Amino acid sequence: MRTSSVDLIILEALEKGHAHLSSHEVYELIRDRVPAVNPSTVYRSLERLAHNGKISVSDMGTGAEVYESISNGIHHHLVCQNCHRVITLEDDEVRTFFSSIQQKYSFQIVTNHLVLFGICENCRNKDESSAEE
Length: 133
Ligand SMILES: [Zn+2]
Ligand SMILES: [Zn+2]
Known about the structure:
The chain is α+β, with helices and mostly antiparallel strands. The protein has helices at 3-15, 23-30, 39-51, 91-105, 121-132, and strands at residues 21-22, 55-59, 65-69, 75-80, 86-90, 115-118. The mean pLDDT is 91.
């Protein structure tokens, strides 16, 4: 099987709404359709697609890099380190910040899936109420 067709199958699979899949999860998802594929082919293909800006690759604190299609538009996330809740940020909310950085440092940002770690509202409220006891 030609590499380019593996790339296409992976892109299609990610575009069907599968968000934040690890390389291994992508492999599980496509291996029935592509019998000749192996985990390292999938990994190399994902790296290539990410490098070419076709998909995003991020560390979301799960222990493995995760991949996601960006064909439905760019978005970003806040990830709670405590309960692992994921909040999605629209690109509009981040773009202003990116463009001020780009101007100030004359640095072209290619990050297409920004992940910020922190503690969500629920977890902060829990902490406060347990501190009051
Ligand atoms: Zn995402
Ligand atoms: Zn939380």
